Amino acid sequence: MAGAWIRRALALGLAAGFLAGCGGSDRPQPATTDRETRMAQLRHEFRRLQGTWRQSERRQPFFESWTWTDSVGWRGVGYSIRKGDTIVYEVLTLTVTDSGYVYLADVEHNPRAVPYHVSSYDSTGFLAVNLRHDFPKRIHYKWNGADSLDVRIDDGSEDGEEGRSSRFRFHRETTTTKGGNK
To answer: What is the pTM of this model?
Structure first.
């Protein structure tokens, strides 16, 4: 069953129709209409995602691993490793459509990937919003230095209001070669 939704996520047609009803702000996205140029901008703007991030505040560490693909943009996989088995929980995509940058979250309990409009971004992170989704309505990635990342998901409550939210602190995994170099 999990394999089916992963295959579905990998085969997603990234049509602009996904954005219908996402909500979010009207912040201008890249002005160019040339997809190749917009993909290059996406790659550059979100290059800090590259790599594997480990969230180890739980009993079972959780990972997000992000890579660039020329066909769709940034591709992320959220997973854990239990008794030597990789358990995939979500397949994530950060891509470009005619409407701007879109963050797609494909999780097993939803019938299809949930689109979020990237409503703001800068060198410290980005905010992806879909006010019509049950939970989360907002996903906020915030970098704290080169190797630290906070991800906050919430129900869209305004500041000062009590609402449902979760925060995940990630640290970049480093790999070491035989010579000891990163």
So the answer is: 0.79
Would you state the structure tokens that stand for residue 167, as one six-digit string? 């925060």
Q: Which CATH architecture has domain 2-9+33-172?
A: Beta Barrel (2.40)
Q: What are the tens digits of pLDDT across the range 110-145?
A: 999 999 999 999 999 999 999 999 999 999 999 999
Question: Which helix (H) or strand (E) element contains residue 50?
Answer: none
Instruction: Count CB-CB contacts under 10 A for residue 57.
Output: 10
Q: Where are the beta strands (DSSP E) in the chain?
A: 51-55, 62-69, 73-82, 85-97, 100-107, 114-122, 125-129, 138-143, 148-154, 165-172
DSSP secondary structure letter of residue 98: T
CA 116/CA 141 separation, integer angstroms: 13
What tens digit of pLDDT does each residue of 62-75 get? 999 999 999 999 99
Beta bridge partners of 82: 85
Yes or no: say if 102 and 89 are a contact pair by the CB < 8 Å rule: no
